[in-house]
Design a protein that fits this description.
The protein is of the alpha/beta class. The chain folds into four domains: 99 residues, Alpha-helical ferredoxin (Fumarate Reductase Iron-sulfur Protein, Chain B, domain 2); 44 residues, no CATH class; 120 residues, Glutathione S-transferase Yfyf (Class Pi), Chain A, domain 2 (Up-down Bundle); 133 residues, Rossmann fold (3-Layer(aba) Sandwich), CATH 3.40.50. The protein contains 23 helices and ten strands. The strands form three sheets. The protein has a four-stranded parallel beta sheet with strand order 2-1-3-4. The longest helix is centred in the middle third of the chain and has 20 residues.
Length: 430
């Protein structure tokens, strides 16, 4: 694709990167076939090819409008388009640049600015989010009538399982605790640590500065703050990496996609570029790590119970992550049910379900229908955002897949949330 980026941007890092990405695009349109928003809305500007042209126009000096911003906002950043692009266009990187440019030129209404401020200043900080979550649970009984949709978005309270003792494990791996998952789905990392402990690996959640991965800020056009989160995590992890930690295990694939790109995000930072590159190399999805271990202790514990698996977009499409969840669940003795159009996004996409609720809701309805196609007993996924988004409208329990994995002498109890009555019961799955 020919470009003519304006002088004010041409020699900047963003301008040069955008020019490189744009020149790879051949305008073929293969990307539209896998774009969820294009499939729903049928508007060229709500597909990757159209958004690329909108960004190109801004880079070449066209004045963006609220409509420009709307079509960029509607992008899920699911990156499905990248997997079908024959030219290897790095769309997600271009989208971040384009959104940032438009954000600086087109002012948002006060309501949108407030919501985005709260997302960045509350959700991304675990202690603040914990307070907001507790307050929401206290208010839940009053969320009726017009407030009922708020109650639906609020995750249920879950009983917290203890983190296992390190024991005599000689191997160590790190795990990102993050910001939302420890509060809204606290048993994911705890269960992962228990499974790892049985395999002779100490899974260590590092404090002392480690927190949000930075993805929320990255996709809300606050990229320098996202880099600050990356630096803080690297500083917290680095002593353990130097001490021989084998991997940085990601139990939330959305975070994994972000951390896997720390090397790219900090490539121009002389103090962190090399460390960030190393962190990206060590970053692996939980399933990818476990699939390389001896899983004999979990064989046939699933007793052929039927499970529908939703692979998050970040695990399907983000470079650097490998999805081996189906292999592990099958090895554990679960029967995976067929899911039509499994490649399509569920509509969660980080903050997307809050900022674009109508599109996110339609995508979720479609996804839940597909997930229920084979009559499963439970739905599992590999990302906390997908889990919470699907759970809010599902009549079936929705859990992180690691909660189904338990060696033979144990059992896992999964709370079910009845979306109609908002009641909770429990179901033994292993």
């Amino acid at each position: 694709m020919q470009t003519s980026i304006i002088p004010a941007l041409r020699d900047t890092a963003d301008g040069q990167e955008a020019d490189r990405i744009l020149r790879a695009c051949t305008h073929c349109g293969f990307c539209t076939a896998t774009c969820p928003t294009y499939q729903l809305l049928g508007d060229e500007r709500d597909g990757p090819r159209g958004r690329i042209y909108l960004i190109k126009q801004v880079l070449e000096g066209a004045e963006p409008t609220e409509k420009t911003r709307l079509h960029l906002d509607r992008c899920l950043t699911c990156r499905a388009c990248e997997t079908t692009c024959p030219s290897g266009v790095e769309y997600a990187k271009l989208a971040d640049i384009g959104r940032d440019l438009v954000e600086r030129q087109v002012s948002r209404p006060p309501r949108e600015r407030i919501i985005r401020w709260l997302l960045r200043h509350v959700v991304a900080y675990r202690p603040r989010f914990e307070i907001a979550y507790a307050f929401g649970q206290w208010l839940r009984p009053a969320m009726v009538g017009p407030l009922a949709p708020l109650a639906q978005k609020l995750p249920p309270n879950r009983s917290r399982q203890p983190w296992p003792e390190a024991g005599t494990a000689k191997r160590t791996m790190l795990v990102l605790d993050g910001c939302v998952q420890p509060v809204a789905a606290p048993n994911t990392n705890a269960q992962a640590a228990r499974v790892f402990a049985r395999l002779g690996v100490r899974l260590l959640a590092v404090g002392g500065g480690a927190g949000c991965c930075g993805a929320l800020h990255q996709h809300l056009s606050h990229r320098e703050q996202a880099r600050d989160f990356a630096r803080a995590n690297i500083d917290a992890w680095w002593p353990h990496i130097e001490a021989g930690a084998e991997a940085i295990v990601m139990t939330a694939s959305g975070c994994g996609a972000q951390v896997a790109e720390y090397g790219y995000l900090l490539r121009d930072d002389p103090g962190y570029a090399e460390k960030a590159r190393r962190v990206s190399e060590l970053t692996r999805d939980l399933s990818d790590v476990l699939a390389d271990e001896d899983l004999t202790p979990i064989a046939n514990t699933g007793n052929q119970r039927k499970v529908a698996y939703h692979p998050p977009c970040t695990l399907q499409n983000a470079p650097g992550l490998h999805d081996r969840v189906p292999d592990i669940l099958t090895a554990a003795g679960y029967q995976l049910t067929p899911v039509p159009n499994a490649h399509l996004c569920c509509g969660s996409a980080g903050s997307y379900s809050i900022l674009q609720p109508e599109i996110a809701g339609e995508l979720r309805d479609n996804k839940l229908q597909a997930l229920g196609h084979g009559g499963p007993e439970v739905i599992v996924t590999a990302n906390v955002g997908c889990q919470l988004h699907l759970e809010a409208a599902s009549g079936l329990p929705v859990r992180h897949w690691i909660e189904l994995i338990e060696p033979r002498d144990g059992h896992t109890e999964l709370p079910i949330r009845d979306s109609a009555a908002a009641s909770q019961v429990s179901l033994n799955l292993v």
